[in-house]
Amino acid sequence: MAEQVLMPQLGESVTEGTIGQWLKHPGDQVEKYESLLEVLTDKVNAEVPSPAAGTVVKLLVEEGTTVPIGTPICELDTGSGEAAESAPADKPAVSAEPTAAAVEAPAAAPKAAPSRDGVRYSPAVRRLAAEHQVDPDAVTGTGAGGRVTRDDVLKFAESGAKPPAAAPQPAMPVVPAAGAAVAAGAPAQIEDGDTLEPVSQVRRVIAERMVRSKQTVPHAWLMVEADVTGLVALRAQHKDAFRAREGVPLTYLPFMLRAVVRALKAVPIMNAQWNGDQIVMKKRVNIGVAAATERGLVVPVVHDADEKNVIGLAKAAQDLTQRARNGRLKLEDLSGGTFTLDNTGAVGTVLTYPIINAPEVGIVTMESIVKRPVVMPGDAIAVRSMVNLCLSFDHRVVDGAEAALFVNTVKKELEALTPSSNID
């Protein structure tokens, strides 16, 4: 019997998803909970497992198309019988579960605000249309049932179609509310010999997230330097035995994770989230670790990092990073973060200004460890291993004194490490 698989709900506030890539195609066999497709949203990028075992009969939504939660996306033959164009009246469609324990998708897609002729547009389409000054009513939809997708809006904007006349400018400038869409930047200048590469769905989602964070969060930034000569010696002393015993490399990352955990405990306001007229003080310490992949940046989360020692943190970080690069992350790996750490030193930087992963209120970087001459007590000069720690924080929630206390606690924790320190 053929059943329709629905677009699942990937997060509490997510109302739509984009088909990033179909991992199974018509005629392919799929086991229950085996990855069926990749879905991109403004919250997460995740592989979606099949809700049942069977054979893929028909793909109802093409790659790159954005549809509301609850929209049928494919037909799955779970037994005998021919595929129908729609699910039988007495057999409800099944929702692709993000994880075995995930909340099922609602029976119907959330309603978006209607246009003047009654057609409904998703929040992402309305936002994109506003950015490009496009009237969505003038766009021909290619989605299911003639629905206007984000790609339709972009193609319409790129076609050079004339946008609706701008409203008269008010006498005084109006500051947009937090979260409001703003006009797109100036277009690129294309000359002979230039090549045009289409923006991937992953890159588009990253761009939207970064723009939204910078537009809605008042970023503040500070940096301190830490003397990690003792940490360098400690790692050099244990790295070979650690790999042989634990099966994973001993990098600087787990030591930094432990230092961040202890700093979050000392300054709990850094482990909070902005929620409009509320500040949510998070009980759990779930640290997102930014990871570069071939498809773009992802931030898998080390859950309950405060309950792990250096060994546990090393294994968790290695597992998440490896699965991120292999495209095997699950929904729970990408959700629930309360603070973010970016190991930018892995790519050779010494000073960065990271963008906050809203609604979190902070992100810290560990830059490259470099040897420099340092003035020591008594004015002696010695060559030491130094690292810059850079912190971006949401100034609506965190003041400079609290941010400085946090990053200096991280510094203190790292500088306290010596070759005789316990790494368990």
Task: Using brief descriptors, characterize the structure shown.
424 residues; OB fold (Dihydrolipoamide Acetyltransferase, E2P); Dihydrolipoamide Transferase; Chloramphenicol Acetyltransferase; 3 domains; 7-stranded mixed beta sheet; 5-stranded mixed beta sheet; 20 strands
Specify the overall morphology.
Answer: globular
Structural class, by secondary structure, is: alpha+beta
Q: What would CATH call the architecture of the largest domain?
A: 2-Layer Sandwich
Number of individual domains = 3
Q: CATH first level of the largest domain: which class?
A: Alpha Beta
Overall mean confidence score, pLDDT: 82
What is the string of helix and strand elements?
Answer: EEEEEEEEEHHHEHHEEEEEEHEEEEH
Unreliable spans:
81-92, 97-118, 166-183
Number of continuous helical runs: 7
Give the proportion of residues in helices: 10-25%
Instruction: State the end-to-end distance.
Output: 54 Å
The biggest beta sheet reads:
7 strands, mixed
* Rg calc: 25 Å
Name of the CATH homologous superfamily of the largest domain: Chloramphenicol acetyltransferase-like domain
